[in-house]
Amino acid sequence: MAHHHMRRSAISIGRPEITWNVGNLEVICRHAFIVVWCNLWEFRAMGFDGISQNPILCMKEVDAMKIAICDDREDDRGALKALLEAYGQDFEIREYGSGKSLCGDMDYIRECGIVFLDINMDGMDGLDAARQIKAECPKVHIVLVTAYVNYALDGYKVKASRFLLKDDLEQTLQECMDDILWEIRQEERVVEFGFVEGNIRLKADDIIYIETSKHKNVFYTKEQTFSIYKKMDELEEDLKGMGFVRIHQSFLINMKYIERISSYVMSLTTGKEISVPKSRYPEVKRQYTLFKGAE
Amino acid sequence: MERIIVSCFIMAAETWGSLYFFDTFMEQKKIGKIGKYRYWLLFLMIAAAVFINRWIDASIWKLFLVVSAFIVFCMLFYRVRWKQSLFFSGLNYCLILLTDFLLVQVGSIWISRDFMQDGAYALKYLLLALIAKMTWLSLLFILRKIWKGRNDYGGLSNGEWIRLGIMPLFTMIALFTLLFCYSNEKRVQVVYLFLAAGLIMMNFLVMGLMQDILVKGELLRENALTDQKKESQLAHYRDMQAVYERQGRKMHDYKNQIRTMQVLLKEGDVQAAAELAERLTESISMEMAAVNTNHPVVNAVLNQKFHAAREQGVSMIFRVSDMSGMRLDGEETVILLSNLLDNAIRECVKVVRRGRKAVINIKLVQEGGKLIFSVKNPVAEKVQVTDGIVLDSNGGMHGVGLMNVKAVVDKYGGDFAISCDQEKFQAVVMI
Questions:
Q1: Of A187, A217, A246, which closes a domain?
Q2: Measured between alpha carbons, how far is A146 from A130 in angstroms, rounded to an integer?
Q3: What is the reported pLDDT for A124?
Q4: Do A166 and A207 belong to one domain?
Q5: Are residues A156 and A200 in the same domain?
Q6: What is the CATH number of domain B290-431?
Q7: Looking at the DSSP assignment, which residues form a beta bridge with residue B305?
């Protein structure tokens, strides 16, 4: 009865739905007045804007992405540029004939999404250029293009995203671009929820974990916490495909922040330890393994 | 009233013992909170069977009711097929019947001929029931000691199940025949006593035989895996041999081409010599090792697979790091890399035949103290993945290769996960 009363009051104010944890239904029925009052206060805080049914607001626009190509051979630069233009998206592409000239244009590099670097060039080779770029622009994706992957060791130290072989570019470039663009979109995902604190946009990657506390779910980020009256099942659905794993009825964890899972305990990079129930343990480990493989 | 109390006590003991018996031979399903109440559920099922039997008033139906209750319980709470459920339910009931019958005979022979008709019925019956149940539970403890925990019954064929099931079936028929032909003569009762004891021993023998069959089956499977590992290694060495032979032939070609270049330069035809040099450089770069991870075995496998894939129109993208500190030995490295890459290449060849591009994404890195090996490839059609196992089109487990990979991963306490959607298959090993 209290539930229907609340629905009517909610609709009259204009909010499309009210949700709360099913497990707490009994408690809410007993304290219906308090919950209704809290919800009314929440509506006022939000300004009756309502909440989008799909919380995912936007992903970074990749169509106008800036790309840099650095190779001392003009033919190779041209071939790579042609393949990128044939990819089907509008990229802004700049070519450089040496590592030195590339590193001399750091303003452009900072705005780049991807930098293609030939490993073997006269003077400053690709690895040195990659090292310098990574030091100044850690978020840029570097793809090392090589005749052979003998520089895999040093290449990994500069955290190159991929190694591609020059004579295989026609076959592999599309797959490489698909993966890198997907990674870039994932990194820039922004979600918006109607929290108790108000409508707030968050980068999905900034959310460390979500925990159920009393009758609401609390988002934990590096700086702050935010509370929301929404079921954990719905939050899990909203954040599907963004690297979150449900380890417990009350916990939804961003796998990016998992340090270790061992002996039914999950340790996060923040130092927090959470018990994983035996029933969910195999599936949690499986999802984390797949996540690390795709990362 | 006394009867009801005694009955409840006996049923409680039988419920506990039955759970102990089933847990010995079968793996429990993970079904959450309901699992905590399985004792009470089984108790209620047995009580219902007993109550219905009292209402029908026919002993033979009690057999069917109780065994049915056991079967339903096993199907609900254990990972078993119906034939295993039927076998173990029947065996459990046989052992209960046998021990009860045995103690009734003991009571008849050594206590009093008509002890069941004596006045102090409840006390004597309770004591006898206690002894019977203690005997039964002792047998279960011994059985658990003997049984070495091999609960994988997949290796037993239907024929073997039928042969093994004859003993419990015969035991039940024999017991009911004995009950039907019950005699108060002491000599006959002594015979019945030895028959009951003999039947118990024979059922134990059957369990021993079953265990031997399972152990031998497992040994055979391990031998098959070992053979497959050796075959993989031989195949790897043969591939290495092929690579060396090809490189040897190429070296011979290169010598000829360098001689040709020398002749061209001596004749002053610099242009032709430069063109020949360029073609030679391209050819050499294609034949050189494509991957270097500072680990000779990893390099050998990755390069061999890279060239093998290329010859079939399949490309690879690498993300690799320094593997020099890897703790897997050579054989395990070959098993891990070869099996997953062979599967990926095989699938990609099917994709290429359908006119699509096929690129394998390989990630082989060591980070955070963990080795991560991931292979992602396109698929011609989605494969079914259940509980981390790839199933073939008939629903059977696919490939000894993946089992070998799992064995290596399990040895190091690592994780192995696979997933497949309409377009991509991914296998990840984390050790």
A1: A187
A2: 13
A3: 61
A4: no
A5: no
A6: 3.30.565.10
A7: none
User: Best residue in B318, B348, B410, B421 to probe A by mutation, most A CBs within 10 Å?
Assistant: B318
**Which domain range does residue A114 map to?**
66-187
Of B286, B288, B372, the CB nearest to A293: B372
Q: Check the CA dihedral B86-B92-B96-B98 and report its sign.
A: positive
What is the pTM (predicted TM-score) of this model? Answer: 0.60
A22 lies in a domain? yes
CA distance B313 to B84: 49
Name the residue among B210, B203, B207 with its Cα closest to residue B155. Answer: B210
Do the domain assignments include residue A61? no
Q: Identify the closest residue of chain A to B377 by CA–CA distance.
A: A175
Cβ atoms of B317 and A175 within 8 Å: the answer is yes
CB-CB under 8 Å, A171 with B285: no
Q: Per the CB < 8 Å rule, is B359 touching A162?
A: no
* CA end-to-end distance (rounded Å), chain A: 48
pLDDT digits (tens, 9 = 90+) for B96-155: 888 888 887 777 776 655 555 555 555 666 777 778 888 888 888 888 887 766 666 666
Q: What is the ipTM of this complex?
A: 0.72
Using alpha carbons, list the distances in angstroms from residue B134 to B17, B26, B409: 10, 23, 44
Contact B320 A152 (CB under 8 A): yes
- In a domain? residue A57: no
> For B390-416, what is each residue's pLDDT tens digit?
555 544 445 557 778 888 898 898 999
Which of A153, A161, A172 minimises the CB distance to B322? A153
- Separation in Å, CA A132 to CA A140, A157, A158: 12, 12, 9
What are the extents of the domains in chain B? Answer: 2-225, 290-431
Flag if B285 and A167 touch (Cβ within 8 Å).
yes
13-32 of B, contacting A, C-beta below 8 A: 30, 32
Distance from CA of A87 to the nearest CA of B (A): 14
- Other Cβ atoms less than 10 A from the Cβ of B291: the count is 23
- How far A149 CA lies from chain B's nearest CA (Å)? 5
Determine the residue among A143, A171, A256 to mutate to test chain B binding: the one whose Cβ has the most chain B Cβ atoms within 10 Å.
A171
> How many CA atoms, within 13 angstroms, populate the side-chain half-sphere of residue B370?
20
Write out chain A residues lying below 8 Å of B288, CB-based: 148
Long-range CB contacts (within 8 A, 24+) of A71-76? A71/A95, A71/A97, A71/A116, A71/A117, A71/A118, A71/A121, A71/A145, A72/A97, A72/A98, A72/A118, A72/A121, A72/A122, A73/A118, A76/A118, A76/A145, A76/A166
A278:B292 CB<8 A:
no
Which residues in chain B are contacts of A153 at CB distance < 8 A?
292-294, 321-322
A86-128: per-residue pLDDT in tens?
987 888 999 998 888 898 898 999 888 899 988 776 666 777 8
Q: What is the pLDDT of residues A138-149, one digit of tens each?
A: 888 989 887 665
Task: Give A107-145 as a DSSP string.
Answer: HHHHHEEEEEEES--SSS-HHHHHHHHHHH-TTSEEEEE
- Sorted by sequence, the CB contacts under 8 Å of residue A252 that are 6+ apart come out as A209, A210, A232, A235, A236, A239, A244, A245, A246
Q: How many domains does chain A have?
A: 3
In a domain, residue A41? The reply is yes
Q: Tokens at residue A27, please?
A: 């408690």
DSSP state of B382: P
At B240-292, the pLDDT tens digits run 666 666 667 767 777 788 888 888 888 888 888 888 887 777 666 555 556 77
CATH (domain of A73): 3.40.50.2300
Q: Of A169, A187, A205, which residue sits at a domain end?
A: A187
B405 in Cβ contact with B429 (< 8 Å): yes
A168 contacts B320? CB cut-off 8 A? no
Handedness of CA B314, B319, B322, B325 (dihedral sign): negative
